[in-house]
Amino acid sequence: MNGFRKCLSGISIVILCGVTTIISANAVPAHLKYQKIECVKNISDSSTIGQEFSEVSTKGSSQTALKSDSLIFQKIYAEALLRGHSYSLLGELCSMGPRLSGSDNAEKAIQWAVNELKKYSFDRVDTQSVMVPRWERGEKEQAWFYSEVFTQILRGNRLKGSDALEKMVHGVQFPSSPHPEWECESYLEQGLTPSKRYKMPVAALGGSVSGSVRAGLISVRTKRELDSLGKEGKLKGKIVLLARPMEESLLNTFQAYGGCVNQRVNGAVWCAPYGAVAVLVRSVSNRCDMHPHTGVTHYDPNIVKIPIAAVPTSISDILEYLSQKDPALEIALDLFCKTLPDRPSANILAETKGQMSPEKIIAFGGHFDSWDQGDGAHDDGAGCIHAWEALRILKAIGYQPKHTLRAVFWINEENGLRGGEEYARLSKAKNEVHIAALESDRGGFTPRGFGVDSVLMPGVKKYQAMLSEYGVGLLEMGGGGADIGPLKKYWSSIGFVSFIPDSQRYFDVHHAETDVFSSVNKRELELGAAAIAAMIYILDQELD
Question: Is the pTM of this model over 0.85?
């Protein structure tokens, strides 16, 4: 039998498949009131669930638009959560491994994506040729530290257990913790025994040169401290550890990232003029663990190029501690990186043509390339799949857009931005008109809202209450992204939107071997795709 709901004296009575449930009317979300719900006798037949969002009260013509928008939102979320494709698509993408620009893996994944997109019968599926840089890590990096002080500490603490040593080392980074040994997935838990040297994990930064170096270590946290020691000649012939951690008091971890990522990007350029022979950088992560996080680094053609690598946060703690206790501390580092000639690659496009203004384009997507560690699941496989699924959802619910909706997977964001630059250049050359662009490049975590440019904010604000019902009501002023940024060169009035998921766990896996498919939550990914589909609907409705 069909279910129905009515509200009497603050009580909501729900009859569904013959089962009566009485709940407080206040507990019924606004977007579920006045709905007719079709009974589904076999819950496993999910293809019929959510299709009967068709009888919505339209009391008064002034409410018609609001109810229509609400209905679209309901259909979007039902499609994403009950019949979603996002999780399985991301799983297939990640099964191909990392997608570093210029790699065979990246090209294989591009071909897979194009073939898969064509199965959805979008109005257009295409690629854009892009020449990308090609850097390879080469043979696995090797690194050790030599410290007689550390050996003596190990011998002295063998009877006390590893906790005593962990308290000393991690107490430097966590001075207020009553039990600092619990704050970190520690190197000291690896069953270490006294030795001449101690192996440690490292990851060459993207773009680093190769090299084999053994030298003493100097640890610094600030650029001012670095410059002071450099001017005194104390960095000459040394390996420098740039040990500034992320600022934990900042609730937005992207702000914290911005506060210390410059030491990763510019570390070699900062240290080489003072005679340093190599650089180690504390991984840009909130998590204290044993996984090094890579990322792009830059050189100045007028400054000698020296090797640069990331160390895990837990290793950074140990090295920083030992640099203060052991003047004879030395590091041995072997990197085998190489830069090869540029290689042809491609951006990927899929679109649904607009019915009223097909010449006007709303672009949305993420970057298809990743670093060569992990699977690139959150960064930025999730962003690409968000866009793919959003385009699919809008098509699946029968929505006919006013403007052309274009999902774009840009190549080479991580170490060049050539995909974004070429996309904008080609769009201008073809006299295309972009009226808005959205980027998803913050992972597949729980969606919270969006960053929105001032030119778009008035229109988007109208929907804030409805967005809040679905948990994405946060609207921050200012949108953008690395890959959509170049569009501003050619369309100065274009409005940008950035997808904002919860950021607290993103830098646990960012650019690390832990950025794998198993780190992505299925429901969080689906909710993100639904949120982006809803935002694309809003933009399409509000823009001329």
Answer: yes
